[in-house]
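Sequence only, no structure available. Ideas?
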Amino acid sequence: MKKSLTAVLLAVLAVFAFVPAASASGHAELTDIQTSKHDGFERIVLLMNGLPSGSVSDEVTEVWDCAADKRIPVAGQEILRTTMFSAATYDENFQRTYTGPRNFVPQGLTNVKGIAISCDFEATLGIAVGYANPNSTHTVTTLTNPDRVVIDIHG
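Reply:
I predicted one. C-alpha cells follow.
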C-alpha cells in the first residue's frame, strides 16, 4: 500500500514539475509586443510567460472591445483578429505584465498599419492587426524558448 501511494505521489509531483509557467497563474501572460519587417512579410511577436491554450483568427471589418460595447479603431483596410484563450495582460494578482500601448501604429512597417488589444477579459486575449494590402495572407503560430505567439502578414 505504501509503495503504490508513494508511486502516485511521485507521479503527481513529476507532472507538476513539468507544468509550463502559464499554469502557475492559470493563464499565459503577455509581456511585450515586438514588430519586424522581412522580405515578403511583416511580423508581430507577442512575447509571453507561457502559451495560450488555443487561438482562433478571423478577418473582420471592424473591432469591438469584448468587455465593453465599444468600437476600437484600428488603422488599415483589412483587419486580422486573433483571439487567444487562457491568456491575459496581467498575472494572478491582477498586476499588469504588459504595460505597453494598447492601440498603436507600429514603426518601420509598410503593410501593417495598426495593432490593438481588442480583448483582455476573463483570460481571453484578443489582438487586432490592421493592414493595407487586401491581398495579404496571414499565419499565426506559437513558438517556445521563449514562449511567443507570432503573427505574420504576408504580401
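The chain has two helices and twelve strands.
Hope that gets you unstuck.
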